[in-house]
Amino acid sequence: MEKLLEYIVREPIQATEQTPLLLMLHGYGSNENDLFSFASELPDELLIVSARAPLSLGLDSFAWYSLQMNAQNHLVSNIPEALEAQNMILNLIDFLQRTYHFKPEKSFLLGFSQGSILSYSIALNYPEKIQNIIALSGYINKEITPNQPNLHYKKLNFFCSHGTEDSVIPIAAARKTATRLSQLDINHIYKEYHSGHGVSPANFTDFKNWITSIL
Questions:
Q1: Which residues pair with 72 in a beta bridge?
Q2: 3-class SS at 119?
Q3: N or C: which end of the chain has fewer CB within 10 A?
């Protein structure tokens, strides 16, 4: 049996056979406690699981995959590591499914930055796993997503957001992603906020309300 990613959990107020799951994937250089800080403000019926990325950068800092500078001074993703991280997240989702029996159509995958990029990848490669995606400050990386649409895309539902002043991932990448979701005829909301590479209070309120509307 493959080793599971480390994670922390907030149990729902009242667990049922089909408690909705919210799985959180933090960004590069962060850890499982970052997004988990939202947990106390999110609906009580959710089982909230926040996963720790597998690559240690030291001092409670982790990454899903490495970033390297190329000859043109652009950061590039380590694709084999990204695919391995995707597989580890899928293994965790399968474990949680066996344990908690959540409904994919009532459960959520929330990712920030590098975690958001992997959330897009998992949704587009495995749309049957979790069907509601909160993609914060990320984009679709074509190197880890399929070229052809999937019949199961009709079941997907995205809340996508980005800061207009983001200096880490340019707003243009997010706008291209929103266009790609439209081309794939995937149901989505795309919002921009006057903020940098982070989650503004207005952004949090909007995705919280979006979660509540689906539950």
A1: none
A2: helix
A3: N
Q: Is the pTM of this model over 0.90?
A: yes
Domain containing residue 84: 7-214
Decide: 36 and 6 in contact? Cβ < 8 Å.
no
CATH number at 58 reads: 3.40.50.1820
d(CA 211, CA 215): 6
Record the tokens describing residue 148, joined without a space.
């052809």
- Helix and strand numbers, DSSP H then E, in the chain: 5, 11
Q: Which residue has the tokens 């800061």?
A: 163
Could you give the number of structural domains in the chain? 1
The rounded distance, in Å, linking the Cα atoms of 59 and 1 is 29
Mean pLDDT, 10 residues at a time, over the chain (215 residues)?
86 80 97 95 94 94 88 79 96 92 91 97 94 97 86 92 94 96 95 95 96 93
CB 21 within 8 A of CB 47: yes
